[in-house]
Amino acid sequence: MAGIYVIGEVTADGHLANISAEVATLARNVAAEGGQGVSGIVVAADPQAAAEELARYLPRVLAVTEPAAADRPWSMVAAERIAHIVGDDVREFEFVGAGPDGRDLAGALSALTGWGVLGNAVAVTWADGSPVVEMSVFGGKLTTTSRFRTDAGIVTVRPNVVTAQPADTAGTVEPYVSEEPLEQPTVKVVERISEASAAAPIEEAKIIVAGGRGVGGAEGFVLVEELAAAMGGVVGATRAAVDSGWIPYSQQIGQTGKIVKPQLYFALGISGAIQHKVGMQTAGTIVAVNRDPDAPIAEFADMVVVGDLFEVGRAVLAELRSRPG
Fold first, then answer.
1. Which of 19, 49, 155, 293 could covalently link to 97 via disulfide, CB atoms 3.0 to 4.6 Å apart?
2. Tell me, what's the pLDDT at 306?
3. Considering the domain 4-176 in this protein, what is its CATH number?
4. 202-322: which CATH architecture?
5. HEC states along 41-105?
6. Average of pLDDT values for 124-129?
């Protein structure tokens, strides 16, 4: 069995989730550093497309066909199937994305196997026979370094800490059918609701225009939306704006929201508290507009415009709209 497994997540349309491509890139590099084998596992009612996409990043992928994944929570079904595959007496480390599904799976797999979990990794290396995991804790105020005390464990990897990079040569996909019965309590998915969202997922956007408490209300986000449209980007927000009901949770960035890594992060009325910073600090360029020159965001932004966000925002919008094309 391989020393490292990457658990691939499947999107609603049957493709590989972007976070899994990032995790596969990281795991492949860690495996090379430690001289370990690395493989992938995709568990789904129809895993073929996602497994082929994961094989662009890894030398070997198991495509596990599990019909129950169509109408039961994926994390429970996948965890049980993966526990059957890896067995009891193994030396394995499982890598999965630290998104909602990945965190659920890690907990379920830990309960089934007794393995420990190191969560929200921002970097992973290999030393002395096991992964060494850097984790962001206490809202990003500290970074810890930990490792497993046993020869098996689960690592959840934070989104956007690695840029997905395909391998030089695509790997192989091996069909896998488990004969073991599913023994966990049957929980049915009775309804799926798709929320209307931006053209591009916020985690993958190259440009984000975000608003905070300083926007003042839902009407203030009209300007944020207009700027995002003019720049070809998407709208983001702080937790304060989401908690106030001004914008949906799906656009929240920060410790309890999405982790993003755009080329440009344009922040309007955002103070830059640590809980928000951990979600956007790896952006290529950060431009902030704030009345307060001493706001925390001024400490890490690449450019700070001190002024009224509505005056500055409208001036920027006018300039963008005046350009040809």
1. 19
2. 96
3. 3.40.50.620
4. 3-Layer(aba) Sandwich (3.40)
5. EEEECCCHHHHHHHCCCCCEEEEEECHHHHCCCHHHHHHHHHHHHHCCCCCCEEEEECCHHHHHH
6. 92
